[in-house]
Specification:
Largest sheet of chain A: 5 strands, parallel
Distance between the termini of chain A: 50 Å
Oligomer: heterodimer
Number of helices of chain B: 17
Structural class of chain A: alpha/beta
Radius of gyration of chain B: 24 Å
Number of helices of chain A: 14
Radius of gyration of chain A: 22 Å
Largest sheet of chain B: 3 strands, antiparallel
Strand order of the largest sheet of chain B: 1-2-3
């Protein structure tokens, strides 16, 4: 793989000093929540790791994942595309079209066999022989399987590729399926959300480039670094939940004071994502901060769990320390120990439940 | 018989297939026939995806619909959500507070500005700009060019362009061209001098940085972008400027200040970079005035940016239809009249039962997928080499206004606004044409210049300026209204479904970045009974109808000469001038939502 430059070489070539490079590494470590001791490790990795080709395919989707990706502020997406990865195929952004575009895909698959990352946005429909999504005259499913064959790792961008998302909502007329249903022999990193947060997307990629491995995943295949806590756990409005202060209807006094949105349907208590910590658009805000409840867009099947304005009737009474794996197991084990948790959740109630967190 | 009819097209010449068409949203295929002089004489535009979103909506809570239809498209994110809440509010007779009206406008225009900038620089520019040629540029001459084209833009020093060029050079030298691999960089269709190419590459990167900032306005009012939140009855972002808890409220003094700064940045970029770039490109490609197609004939707009809520006559960009190129008469448009807007499926992969020739209004729309290929198709059902356009050939339906194929989008809006006497628009258009004529020494009239690929691209840039300017007005009006004691953001009188009539129907309209957008909803017993959307790319990308009328993409490609038929630069250039959005165009509804065909895992 000597023809691929290391990230460090790329930065040096662009006139970036070693001092700036090391500073970049510390910032990257901080952005990934890794602490300063990881900076030398990142520096070492970047000095020795080659630039990795990425093939980015699009199935049935709305392109919100690509749009989110280009919103990344740290790192800036221009630096990702020009210096960190080699985005060899992405039909949303690439210059070539038609057979020249398809040639780019083949070139990279051949030249970097087993070395490229496959990033998938959207999912394949199975009905109508796959012809609800056609690329190059053939079913997208064919392209997906073809490109997956020699990939080093596969990233499922967003809720479409991870769970199926909106086109797979009942009754799923095209029989759209998440990619793990059709690719069963490769590691797949699920980065759910509709779309995922920009810095979560670039954070996952940067982590893989830096450490040369995929980030630690939970049982459902999501990186723990971003999906191990519920939005509710770190929500700035959480104290109002605990104090029993709620928005009762839109634009009431509670809404103007930033009270908890649980009673108007917020799905933050059951949604695993980094919205309340990383926040959106360079940390500008996130849905709850802008006054609307979380709709749970990173959760499997979130379209089919009742209205976005229905109050959650089964908040599970577990604490921050219990992670998605444990909840996943509880659900898998059919333990319906969802303790009815209507709005009367106060500090007293919390204390009361403290002893019964294990479901 | 107009030449924009299938019966007038010549498909005997060499067939060129472009699939996938890239730098668009979604999946699209295009086939053309060229004659012995490599001039396009027949064009076939095909939508190659279908998701069935509206069938998914059936039986759901109408207040949730915005979130589902917002996922029709993540590029024009928010526009479907806005149109959806309007449809529900129309059906239920809900009037929203003025603050909500203004905040929705700010969000809608944020999208317009963002989408137009990203379209020009990241989807369209590579049809005009050759990044490899930029390596030959003299940074000093580039600096002079920049200062001539736009003296107000601060990033104009020779050193700046030298840095950009160095970065580009080193990138090219790696041999890993990434997104630029297999481009058509030695094709003579590229005409810019190296300095203009380098300037454009610099702006490609600047626009990439800028676009992530303008959408932060969505994050303030809607919590995130892409896919900000909307709400039936108003907006969810409550206003609190000086009371208890203001610092934790969605709209407070700091967030308003933040929004104002983003508007200012976007305005500066639009005026100092985007518009001058478009005019510079146009003046160098002055002889490439192809791509007019339907734009010289039939144009449609539903109108947008209503100044006085409820009074469509105060639209900044007015509604109307122009037919047969007669700019002297702008016809009124009624989206509720079943005889005006109808959809046809004669050449689309759907069936209307025993009569595929009829047209149906969206409130009564029927959509049964029927994927079948014509007898002259080359290849097989799952490996199409060449389509047969005499039969069904697209996942896009064919909407028609009073039987006419129509072009929609920024150019349609601008010609209709110009013809309707909107002074702001007339000043913009006249000023631009004067600049173009002065730079080129030509004396083109409006009807020669505007209906063209370049005219479409210019109209989009002018509209970006209009939006950025009027966002400032909206912001000031919002602050004035709050100052006058009105902090209301939502009307919750009819939030509870028990207050609704047993049956209701409504329509929401908007002008999305790519053109006229309508959502038609029927509500029964508090649930969605029927939902139909006709979106801009359904109009522009439509296949032929029962009468053989061709859609805007197909019409625009005709009579365009290609430098090298194997390299579809000219095809991409004209298709991209419409900013195709295929996920939008192809998501229509199956009446009963049954399983469509047997599942077959390949």
């Amino acid at each position: 793989m000597s023809q691929i430059e290391t990230f460090y070489e790329v930065m040096r070539r662009q006139g970036i000093t070693r001092r700036s490079f090391l500073k970049y590494c510390s910032l990257t470590a901080a952005a990934l929540g890794l602490g300063p001791t990881f900076a030398p490790k990142i520096a070492n990795a970047m000095e020795t790791k080659p630039r990795t080709p990425v093939l980015w395919l699009h199935g049935l989707e709305c392109t919100c994942c690509s749009e989110s990706f280009i919103r990344s502020a740290h790192p800036l997406v221009k630096d990702v595309v020009l210096s960190m990865i080699s985005l060899d195929y992405d039909d949303t952004l690439m210059a070539a079209a038609g057979h020249q575009a398809e040639q780019s895909l083949e070139d990279t698959m051949k030249k970097y066999k087993g070395e490229y990352i496959l990033a998938v946005e959207g999912n394949p429909p199975l009905n109508e022989d796959g012809m609800f999504c056609i690329v190059g005259g053939k079913p997208f499913l064919d392209q997906l399987k073809h490109a997956a064959k020699d990939a080093k790792a596969i990233i499922a961008w967003g809720s479409c590729a991870s769970w199926g998302c909106v086109q797979a909502a009942r009754p799923n007329p095209t029989q759209a399926v998440p990619i793990h249903k059709v690719i069963t022999d490769k590691p797949i990193i699920k980065v759910p959300g509709c779309p995922p947060i920009a810095e979560v997307m670039t954070g996952v990629i940067t982590y893989m480039l830096t450490f040369g491995c995929i980030p630690e995943l939970d049982r459902q295949g999501r990186p723990k670094m971003f999906y191990s806590q519920r939005i509710h756990d770190k929500c700035y409005r959480r104290p109002h939940f605990d104090a029993g202060q709620f928005v009762e209807h839109w634009d009431d006094e509670g809404a103007r004071k930033g009270y908890c949105l649980y009673k108007v349907g917020c799905k933050g208590p059951t949604t695993y994502n980094a919205c309340s910590t990383v926040r959106w658009n360079e940390g500008t805000s996130f849905p709850i901060q802008a006054g609307h409840g979380c709709i749970g867009c990173s959760e499997e099947g979130f379209w089919d769990k009742g209205s976005f304005y229905d109050r959650l009737s089964n908040i599970q009474q577990f604490g921050i320390e219990q992670n998605a794996d444990q909840i996943g197991m509880a659900v898998a084990g059919g333990v319906g120990a969802a303790i009815a948790g209507h709005a009367a959740v106060s500090a007293i109630k919390r204390a009361q439940h403290k002893g019964e967190q294990e479901s | 018989m107009s030449e924009l009819n299938a019966s007038q097209l010549d498909n005997t010449g060499r067939r060129i297939v472009v699939d996938p068409v890239t730098r668009i949203e979604g999946h699209m295929r295009c086939e053309v026939n060229v004659d012995d002089n490599n001039v396009i004489r027949n064009a076939v535009s095909t939508g190659t995806m279908w998701r069935g979103l509206e069938v998914i909506l059936k039986g759901r809570d109408p207040r949730d619909a915005w979130a589902f239809v917002e996922r029709i498209c993540g590029v024009c994110t928010g526009t479907h959500a806005l149109t959806s809440v309007r449809a529900v509010e129309d059906a239920l007779g809900i009037e929203i507070p003025l603050n909500a009206h203004l905040i929705r406008h700010l969000m809608d225009k944020t999208l317009q500005v963002h989408d137009h900038i990203v379209h020009f620089y990241h989807l369209h520019a590579l049809d005009w700009v050759n990044p490899v040629n930029a390596l030959k540029a003299d940074p000093k001459a580039t600096s002079e060019l920049q200062q001539m084209v736009s003296p107000a833009h601060p990033k104009s020093s020779p050193g700046y362009f030298k840095d950009v060029q160095t970065r580009l050079k080193k990138f090219v030298e790696t041999g890993q061209l990434g997104l630029f691999a297999n481009g058509y960089w030695d094709n003579p269709a590229y005409k810019l001098p190296p300095e203009a190419d380098l300037m454009a590459v610099a702006h490609y990167l600047e626009a990439l940085d800028l676009q992530k900032d303008i959408v932060k306005i969505h994050a303030i009012f809607g919590g995130k972008n892409p896919h900000p939140n909307f709400m039936v009855g108003g907006v969810a972002c409550a206003i609190n400027l000086d009371g208890t808890g203001a610092s934790g409220a969605p709209v407070n003094m700091t967030s308003l200040n933040f929004v104002l700064e983003r508007i200012r940045e976007a305005r500066e970029f639009t005026k100092n970079v985007y518009l001058p770039d478009v005019l510079a490109v146009a003046s160098i490609y002055k002889d490439w005035l192809y791509g007019g197609g339907l734009a010289s004939q039939n144009l449609l707009s539903y109108g947008t940016y209503t100044q006085v809520p409820g009074d469509k006559s105060t639209d900044l960009l007015p509604a109307g239809a122009i037919v047969n190129g007669n700019w002297d008469e702008v016809h009124p448009v009624d989206v509720r009249d079943p005889s005006e807007i109808q959809e046809f499926v004669t050449h689309s992969w759907y069936s209307y039962g025993d009569n595929d020739e009829q047209g149906l209004h969206p409130w009564d729309g029927v959509t049964e997928p029927k994927f079948e290929l014509g007898p002259n198709t080359k290849g097989s059902r799952t490996d199409i080499k060449q389509l047969d356009e005499s039969a069904k050939y697209s996942w896009i339906k064919a909407p028609r206004w009073k039987g006419h194929a129509m072009e929609v989008g920024p150019l349609a809006r601008y010609i209709i606004a110009y013809a309707s006497g909107r002074e702001y628009v007339q000043e913009q258009v006249n000023r631009s044409l004067a600049t173009f004529n002065q730079a080129t020494g030509l004396q083109l009239g409006l009807k020669q210049f505007l209906p063209s690929t370049l005219g479409r691209t210019l109209a989009r840039a002018l509209e970006c300026e209009l939006c950025a300017d009027s966002m400032l007005d909206d912001w000031h009006q919002l602050v004035d209204n709050i100052r006058n004691g009105d902090s209301s953001t939502a009307n919750v009188d009819k939030w509870d479904p028990s207050t609704w009539p047993k049956e209701a129907k409504g329509v929401g309209i908007n002008e999305a970045p790519r053109g006229a957008l309508g959502h038609w909803i029927k509500i029964k017993d508090g649930k969605i009974d029927n939902y139909q959307a006709i979106v801009p790319t359904t109009w522009n990308g439509s296949p032929r109808d029962a009468e053989g009328n061709i859609g805007a993409y197909e019409a625009a490609l005709l009579n365009t000469p290609m430098e090298r038929p194997d390299e579809p630069v000219e095809i991409l250039r004209t298709l991209h001038s419409f900013d195709p959005c295929l996920a939008c165009s192809t998501h229509v509804m199956s009446e009963d939502g049954r399983e469509l065909t047997k599942v077959k895992i390949r």
